[in-house]
Amino acid sequence: MSDDQVFVDTNVLVYAHDKDAGDKYRIAKERVKSLWNRPLLPSISIQVLQEFYVNLIKRRVNASDAREAVMSYLEWDVIDNDRSLLLEGMRMKEKWPISYWDALILAAAKRAKARELWSEDLNPGQQCEGVVVVNPLEKR
To answer: More exposed terminus of the chain, fewer Cβ within 10 Å: N or C?
Structure first.
């Protein structure tokens, strides 16, 4: 098992908790579960946790259950949003044709020194300043 850092995007966590997502639920749940067994726990950002909470509420998850789910991921390496991350996200947005929100995720992954960014939103195999996008929901 690799000791390389992995950064997890919101959609992966949402699918891992959305029983109505079919195969994506099953795959994401299995993949996220495997992350808990790594010697180096994965990274996420405050942005990811905020989006995760909002998406659980949209899926009619009870607010206290959604809060508990978010709190469990606070055990991971959490990247805070701050001034320098804001500026790095803007720089990355200007450099690549992606949304600002995706650029902010990339900036957080870069700050975490992640080699992989697990996301369904960006192009698998895409490399951005040392971070490689991986879609963990693709069937293997």
So the answer is: C
